[in-house]
Amino acid sequence: MNRTNAPGSPAVTNAPATFQVKSFGCQMNVYDGERMAEMLGERGMTAAAEGTDADLVILNTCHIREKAVDRVYSDIGRMTREDGSRPMIAVAGCVAQAEGSEISRRAKTVDIVVGPQAYHRLPDLIAKAGRGEEAIDTDMPADSKFDTLPARTRQTRPTAFLTIMEGCDKFCTYCVVPYTRGAEISRSWSAILDEAKALVDGGVKEITLLGQNVNAWTGQDDRGQMQGMDGLVRELAKIDALKRIRYTTSHPNDMSDGLIAAHGEVAKLMPFLHLPVQSGNDRILKAMNRSHSVESYLRIIDRVRTARPDIAISSDFIVGFPGESDAEFEDTLRIVEQVRYAQCYSFKYSPRPGTPAAGMDGQIAPELMDERLARLQAVINREQVAFNNTTVGSRTDILLERKGRYPGQLIGKTPWLQSVHLTAPDHAIGDMIEVDILSAGPNSLAGEPSRRKAA
Ligand code: SAH
Ligand code: SF4
Ligand code: F3S
Predict the structure, then answer these.
(1) Which of the four CATH numbers 3.40.50.12160, 3.40.50.1370, 3.30.565.10, 3.30.1780.10 does domain 18-137 have?
(2) Which of 19, 94, 216, 220 has the fewest other C-beta atoms within 10 Å?
(3) Ligand nearest to the CA of 376
(4) Residues contacting residue 254 through CB under 8 Å, at least 6 positions apart
């Protein structure tokens, strides 16, 4: 199906047969994108083959920084083909939620706008758009999308994401997520376990539990007892064919004693913790409304390391928050060295419309932010290389996840989330194998299947 751009062009009534979902932003968007694709597949649509034009393109967008939003509009602009035709265009995700009908005003070629809590209604919206009607849905409906979406289909990869809670009640002063994803809502114990079992029955070996504050999950188990995420992890670990459990993103304030203990007790819970701190300075943390201090954060790290000494820690950082002085920024460099992170994400502060920080005094000049980001990334990279180097000469299990760039090359992940490149002719994707780590680079390791039995 092709649509033309001519103003007042007649509505196209034939339904799209093929689709493409492009997800940006966090893993929760990747998960949502997969669920959308599965739902459309169930409705008889097919995913457009790689390199071919789809009848419907869904841009599953991210609103977290200005750059992410600019990207959406430039993508929309590029979708009109040389002959003036274009696919049906849907904007989903957090930009859809934040900007709503503003999107179709700014980009006239957008046919559908659908928020992250309403995408189970996509089939209706597609029908509406096909009739040339306005198709905008940014409700946060009481009927959860999860109750309406089809069950998970057989997966093509051995790893899968599983969203267990959504939304955020924390309101960090720089962040749009509480507005785009709404309040914290936990999915039910049984819905999560059913989905996990369906994924494992479909060949999945590793599940990453997802949520904007995943460790804020709470719910009743099947005996009516209140549980936290640690209880859920312990229950998931009972699924025999499930080999690895991960979770992200966790908030320092929701690191319960039970979850910390689980890291020392549940073998399937991988020794990796993404625990963003954002800044190494207490005044900045306060201005960010992070509700933890540097010290309380470091105390959590200590306790987690006591429970699981080999755990790898990662974080997110923002440089150039309004009012950040040189000395305050340098505190951030210090905490990176102090914690010895395995890896980190770092961002320049991006003022977001409607957030308190966007109106604060002391907005930092872009050039200074660039300089701070470069200095921070140099320290982060140094720590990451040092962490990877510690694994050289060791023996570990990896889960083979995908093919590498070279013929016969496979890529697997260590428990600490490092990619290992290797050739393993006797093994296939989905196998868990023991390897010896031969060398380390900044972003990956090289290894070989271990030949002798471990002593
Ligand atoms: N809930 C998670 C993070 C979700 S957003 C948490 O609290 O850790 C992912 C990361 O984007 C954040 O950790 C933060 O580092 C970054 N981020 C969020 N808003 C931002 C903004 N306005 N400018 C720059 N980075 C931002
Ligand atoms: Fe954003 Fe803070 Fe919520 Fe994370 S905890 S999603 S940074 S408001
Ligand atoms: Fe982006 Fe929304 Fe995720 S703003 S980071 S896609 S929750």
Answers:
(1) 3.40.50.12160
(2) 220
(3) 1
(4) 213, 215, 216
Q: What is the pTM of this model?
A: 0.94
Chain segment 217-235, per-residue pLDDT in tens: 999 999 999 999 999 999 9
Residue 162: what pLDDT?
Answer: 97
| CATH architecture for residues 271-390 | 2-Layer Sandwich (3.30)
- Domains of the chain: which residue ranges? 18-137, 151-269, 271-390, 395-449
| Dihedrals phi, psi of 196, to nearest 5 degrees | -60, -45
Helical residues (DSSP H) of 237-365, grouped into ranges: 257-265, 282-287, 294-307, 326-339
151-269 with 271-390: one CATH topology?
Answer: yes
Q: What angle do helix axes 27-42 and 122-130 make, rounded to 10 degrees? A: 70
Give the residue, by CA position, lying nearest to ligand 3 atom 3: 26
**What is the token pair recorded at 101?**
């009908």
Residue 325 confidence (pLDDT): 98
**Residue at 6: amino acid letter:** A
Give residue 156's pLDDT band: very low, low, confident or very high (50, 70, 90): confident
Structure confidence by residue, pLDDT tens digits, 369-382: 999 999 999 999 99
Ligand 3 atom closest to the Cα of residue 28 is 3
Scanning 10-152, the segments in alpha helix (DSSP H) are 27-42, 66-77, 93-99, 102-106, 122-130, 145-148
**Beta carbons within 8 Å of 57's beta carbon, 6+ residues apart:** 19, 20, 22, 79, 87, 88, 89, 90
**Given ligand 3 and candidates 70, 172, 180, 212, which is best to mutate, with the most ligand atoms within 8 Å of its CB?**
180
Q: Which of 31, 46, 233 is nearest to 149 (CA)?
A: 31
Find the mean pLDDT for residues 423-428.
93
Distance from Cα 12 to the centre of ligand 3, integer Å:
32
Strand order in the sheet with 343-348: 272-274, 312-319, 343-348
Q: How far is the CA of 347 from the centre of ligand 1 (A)?
A: 8
- Based on its alpha-carbon atoms, the radius of gyration of the chain, rounded to whole angstroms, reads 23
Q: Which of 212, 159, 225, 165 is nearest to 192 (CA)?
A: 165
CATH class of 395-449: mainly beta
Q: Write down the residue that tokens 């680079």 correspond to.
A: 441
